[in-house]
Amino acid sequence: MKLLAIETATDACSAALWLDGTLTRRHEVAPREHTRLILPMMDELLARAGVRLADLDALAFGRGPGAFTGVRIAAAVIQGAAFGANLPVVPVSTLAALAQQGLDAGASRVLAALDARMGEVYWGAFEADAGGLAVAAGPERVVAPDAVPVPEGTGWHGAGSGWAAYEDVLRGRLGPCIGSIDPASCPSAAEVARLAVRDFAAGLAVPAEQALPVYLRDKVADKPRPVAGV
Q: Confidence class of residue 216 from pLDDT cuts 50, 70 and 90?
């Protein structure tokens, strides 16, 4: 399996190349620099591996939710590359990629939260499948921190910028459900690639024209505001 993945939905910009189980990556926290960085990152990974885009089996991208412009950049770049090389695309939840970091660190269940601005968070609950990879334990949503759904059980790990912005409110809402948190964790293309390999095997790849971003918030462009991650 040969797959190239990108993730640009937050302040971090990253690309990762999966070649038959070997993963190489480029990752840089660079707000508002994603357009400049992402294509050179992709080209560098392919060049170092001696692989052409057309040699790959598929492409993957973090489909969101996240910063509106960042999610749109990832979708546009991956669509263009997929059309040019006639490759299928695996869209991967940015929240699932974020949760995967928590699972890799030893958590068994993760509450992934990204700061959505406007007093809300992008929110998703995830558990590990038999292979240790993130699977959704409920629908993703954009919601006020004091209204996030309270999951069953205890020992949930909190991950992402939403915890940095609203830790007190989220802890007050979730009570004993939540254990450890990592508010500095950030989704990256490495996790997108690993999840995409699983999803590709499950037949979840789509044609380039169906590789669409997921914003969650309706009418995201109606109210101009500063956007993190681009």
A: very high
Alpha carbon dihedral 156, 158, 163, 167, in 10-degree steps, equals: 30
From the CB of residue 191, how many other CB atoms can be counted at a distance below 10 Å?
28
Strands (E), the chain: 2-7, 12-19, 22-29, 58-62, 89-92, 109-117, 120-128, 134-136, 141-143, 156-159, 178-182
Q: Are 138 and 124 within 8 A, CB to CB?
A: yes
| Residue (of 33, 64, 37, 45) closest to 4 by Cα position | 45
Cβ proximity of 154 and 195 under 8 Å: no
> For the chain, how long is the longest CA-to-CA vector?
51
For residues 113 and 163, give the distance between their C-alpha atoms in angstroms, rounded to a whole number.
6
Q: What is the pLDDT of residues 154-198, one digit of tens each?
A: 999 999 999 999 999 999 999 999 999 999 999 999 999 999 999
CB 21 within 8 A of CB 193: no
Distance of CA 190 to CAs 14, 15, 98, 218, Å?
8, 7, 10, 29
Claim: this prediction has a pTM higher than 0.85: yes
How far the first Cα of the chain sits from its last, in Å, is: 31
Q: Which of 125, 147, 148, 145 is nearest to 137 (CA)?
A: 125
The torsion angle over the Cα atoms of residues 145, 146, 149 and 151, rounded to 10 degrees, is: 100
